[in-house]
Amino acid sequence: MAVPVSYSHMVSAGGLHSTAADLAKFLLVFQNENSVFRKETLEKMTKVQYRPHPELSGVTYGFLEQRYKSNTYFYRTGDSEGAKAKIFLLPEQNTGIVILNNSDYSEVSSKFINAFYDRFYPDETSYTYKNRITEDTKKYEGVYDYAQFPRDDFTKIFRIFLGIQVISNNDGTITVKSLGEEPFGDLGGEQIFYQIKPLLFKSMDKEQYIAFGEDEKGKITYLYSGSGYHGSFVKIQNWYHNPVFHKFLYLGFSGIFFIHLLYTGIRKLMKKESGRYDFVSGIIDILNILFLSLYFPAVMIIGMSPGMPAYSQGVNALMLAVFAMPLFAVILTLAELILIFIQKNKAELKKQYFIITVNILFFIWIIYWRAVFW
Fold first, then answer.
1. Which region holds residue 223: left if phi is over 0, alpha if psi is between -120 and 50, else beta?
2. Is residue 256 located within the same domain as residue 352?
3. What is the pTM of this model?
4. Could you tell me the mean pLDDT of each successive run of 10 residues in the chain, 374 residues long?
5. Where are the beta strands (DSSP E) in the chain?
6. Same domain, 255 and 364
7. Do residues 110 and 225 share a domain?
8. Helices (H) and strands (E) in the chain, counts
9. Based on the domain organization, do 257 and 215 belong to the same domain?
10. DSSP β-bridge partners for residue 85
């Protein structure tokens, strides 16, 4: 079903609006001996510059390599809201294919190219479940994070909702599942993989492979999908870096602030006795709730161009306002705490102790995620 196309302004990294005919002319450059490009230049554009594993796809200057059974081709994608584009270059078949579709469904082109090869260049994979390697896969278990992702700016916090989890199964297979949105490494959803070579696994459901990397001590440190723009993942070694743990903290802080705001509000409406600092605490709760609610829309939807995790837009007024909320909240928290001590009001301190402690811990947490002081 067709959906409306957004002709939103994109930054230069993703701002080409083209047609199928023009994209086809671009692909013809690789087949024309009289091209304006030198032969050496075109060869470099289809020569793999990096490959994480000998059995996985690699990347060239401008194209991504993809393997389907024994066939190899190159592709490049582009998309916007309501539109998907993909070009294919098949050097062995001297063929170029352009697919544009007015939809947010991105699997059309991949299914087409697979069907194309099955129809015109049929081949069978040499790896089957029957000749798999059966060994203990416990060492692969864990959570893996994008190797390419900001670690020192305000987009670091998006890692809470990303990541790949690997689970070892009793039959020697592994389950690989996405912990959130996974648009880059072609590992969305949940899949089961079986081992076909040391450190190399094949999907049970389709022609897809993943590989693992290890350090000099034999400890698993990387996962490679060999697909998409960001197909390399780093294994998280410490529990306090685990996005599952931080997702729990995110939800926990959100729940505490909301429940505390609701509690103080109900007390006020029922005209029950309330402390003189309940109003201030309510403002702090509101600021923290607004920050947690608006941070991701402000940065991702408004501030971040397509191409995450590569951030390329500037900081706009809405983002500055959102970033300021926890700063105001912690200033009010510290002011409240100082006034309570000055007035030596032990009863008020006892009453506000929990929420003040939570506010301070929350501020330390968002400093860790570079949501402030970046």
1. beta
2. yes
3. 0.79
4. 51 66 90 77 87 88 86 85 86 90 79 90 74 88 86 79 90 91 74 93 88 93 82 89 90 95 82 68 93 84 50 70 92 87 74 87 92 70
5. 64-68, 71-80, 83-90, 95-101, 142-146, 164-168, 174-178, 190-197, 200-203, 209-214, 220-224, 232-235
6. yes
7. no
8. 7, 12
9. no
10. 78, 100
